[in-house]
Amino acid sequence: MTATMTGPAGRMQIARGLIALRERCGLTQTQVAERAGVSKATVSRYEAWQDRARIRWATVKALADACEASAEEREALVRVVKSQSEGWWVGNSAVPEWIDPLVSFEHEAEYEHVYANNVVPGLLQTRGYATAIHRATELRTPNEQVERMVDARMQRQSILDRQVPLHLWVILDEAVLRRIVGDEAVMAEQLDHLYDMAQRPNIDIQLLPFTAGAHAAGSGHFVILGRDDARNPLNSMAVVYIEMRRRGLYLDDVDAVSSYKLSFDYLRSQAADSTVSLRLLGTVRQEFSS
């Protein structure tokens, strides 16, 4: 019986699938444990995607069978366990532990929606801008480690160039453009990069001007990552990421995710459309040329 270190995205898919099967049968975790011949703690651990322990495909199979899963449902979950491979970020000292799930989710997601009210999101940062951000936030960190962290951020952006690229939709508060990170040369390069990236078919950028006043975000920066599969709901994924100082908060509760999705929908309507946003980007960019 093999044990696999399944990434957070795969673990979430497995956990959500097992929970859905158990609730469909109206069973408690204790009842599933008795049927599967495992401990209640094991059931709880397999239903908690943030647990980092290794998982066994045979245990997933036993839990699915205990919940009267169909052969197709059972094999779909087992296949997730067996198909997991460790990404470049696993064990990479340049990727903080709290960021590891985010990179894993990005690797599996079809879309990512971001509201940024402070700095340009990592997927759209230039190297110069990312370096300035890391030097400001990674206090007393050696330059060599900062450079490795910037390298990792640049590598993370490769998901925008994969064969089926991530669809990235970003709403930038005007404050992001007005905050000078690095110096004016760094900002000019960053704004040029945003303008160029907004031309890509898989990237949408909208600006939320100060004149929009109070808006739906309420709090600060948040990220919604997801994958929708109507034919196989167990293959779907939805999670919200909120970055804090040296830790990240991940929300996968249905109500919480729905709340953030609603906020993002309202933000899209409150922000300038893509055409006006490009014009505003160009206007701000000119300010750094004068």
UniProtKB/TrEMBL annotation:
It comes from the Bacteria. Pfam families: DUF5753, HTH_31. CDD domains: HTH_XRE (cd00093). SUPFAM superfamilies: lambda repressor-like DNA-binding domains. Residues 18-74 form the HTH cro/C1-type domain. This is Helix-turn-helix domain-containing protein. The lineage of its organism: Bacteria, Bacillati, Actinomycetota, Actinomycetes, Kitasatosporales.
